[in-house]
Automatic annotation (TrEMBL):
Active site: 172 (proton donor/acceptor), 188 (nucleophile)
Protein's UniProt name: ATP synthase
InterPro entries on file: LD-transpeptidase, LD_TPept_cat_dom, Transpep_catalytic_dom
Signal sequence annotation: 1-32
Keywords: Cell shape, Cell wall biogenesis/degradation, Glycosyltransferase, Hydrolase, Peptidoglycan synthesis, Signal, Transferase
Record-stated family: Belongs to the YkuD family.
Gene Ontology terms: biological process: cell wall organization; peptidoglycan-protein cross-linking; regulation of cell shape
Known pathway: Cell wall biogenesis; peptidoglycan biosynthesis
GO molecular function: glycosyltransferase activity; peptidoglycan L,D-transpeptidase activity
GO annotations of cellular component type: extracellular region
Domain of life: Bacteria
Record-annotated L,D-TPase catalytic domain positions: 83-212
């Protein structure tokens, strides 16, 4: 009986020890990470959000234009109404008539030999970052050209375009600002992207555009205001 009592007390001590270990486990500090009740359930992992589309950045192709080709207000006397655009083809200028004997003058690139033209048109459409579809006449001369190019910094029409009447000609920007002041186009009139944005903001559909002929060798009529 004594031996039985000793065994029972040992059993009780072992049981109390197990309870003590369990109590210690459940009385761990609150900062400790709790054990999962059902470890066979894996935690759900949230899917990463889709990447945010980033607008393409305009390529920095700025160049230092000669002083005469930089955008500036000049004295310019004309009978044309304010808001009229006058293209001085021989001197590679575009004038936006302001009135009171003044105009905003921009340096432009014009058509190469054999591709200049003259006459009066109106702006019939405006577009920001326009797509480019070369006309059949241009593709016939340059069959390597793309048949269509989406708008963007690499597009030769640049940041803005103003379409002239029902012709194939436009006043537009360029991704080659070093061509301002030269004769390289197929008849379109190009400005730097910064200048074409400025002009675009000042004119509207219906604006009158007068293109002077290349044979009009008059002196530069625009005098810088000092």
């Amino acid at each position: 009986m004594f031996n039985s009592f000793r065994l029972n007390t040992r059993f009780a001590a072992a049981a109390l020890g197990a309870l003590a270990i369990g109590a210690t486990a459940f009385s761990a500090p609150a900062t400790a990470a709790p054990l999962p009740l059902f470890p066979f359930f894996l935690p759900q992992i949230e899917a990463a959000p889709p990447p945010v589309a980033v607008a393409p950045q305009e390529e920095d192709r700025s160049v230092e234009l000669p002083a005469r080709l930089r955008r500036q207000v000049v004295n310019y006397y004309t009978r044309e109404a304010p808001g009229t655009i006058i293209i001085d083809t021989p001197n590679t200028y575009l004038y936006l008539v302001l009135g009171n004997g003044q105009a905003m003058r921009y340096g432009i690139g014009i058509g190469r030999d054999g591709f200049t033209w003259s006459g009066t048109q109106t702006i019939t459409r405006k577009a920001e970052w326009p797509a480019w579809t070369p006309p059949p006449e241009m593709i016939a001369r340059q069959p390597y050209l793309p048949r269509h190019m989406a708008g963007g910094p690499g597009n030769p029409l640049g940041a803005r375009a103003m379409y002239l009447g029902g012709t194939i000609y436009r006043i537009h920007g360029t991704n080659a600002p070093e061509t301002i002041g030269t004769r390289v186009s197929s008849g379109c009139l190009r400005l730097t992207n910064e200048d074409v944005k400025d002009l675009y903001s000042r004119v509207s559909v219906g604006t009158k555009v007068i293109v002077l002929p290349m044979t009009d060798r008059r002196a530069d009529l625009g005098r810088t205001i000092r």
